[in-house]
Write a structure and sequence with these properties.
mainly beta, Transporter, globular, OB fold (Dihydrolipoamide Acetyltransferase, E2P)
Amino acid sequence: MKLSARNQLKGTIHSITKGATTSHVTIDVNGTVITSAITNEAVAELGLEVGKTAYAVIKASSVMVGVD
């Protein structure tokens, strides 16, 4: 797999919570849990299952920081 996104974090699928049309997939990356919202169709097409290896691929144009 080759992608232009620089932030490709390899981890293990921790949980998959399916909704009506969207699933929340959590990936454990060395103790840090990252959550992604993807379609149920994508979960099925990718064959995602708890315990399998997956990549969290992050592509963003900006990162905001806020304080009180």
